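Example record used in the benchmark description.
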Amino acid sequence: MDGGIAENLPWRETKRAGADKVLSIVFGNKTPESCCKNIYEVVNKSFSILCHELSKYEWDGTDYLLEIKEPNIGLLDKKHIDELYNEGYIQTKLKISDIKKKLII
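Model output (structure tokens):
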């Protein structure tokens, strides 16, 4: 289930839909502090920071949180979607035993 502005990490809705355990995936950005070449980059970085900070309030409710940090890829950067999927796959494989311990009863 994907989140949105009001509920960036929708673990409550996922549990309401019947899930016993919820694995949440968030993307952190390791972008350098320097900003920005144009107004689009300012808005993109601001939106990314906002969504990340809002999701932090929800982290305690999830059963397992997988945070994926990817350099220089903004939240709205659709050109790198395959890269993000691939990094998510790699991080999940690296942490699968820990995930299983937390999620499987």
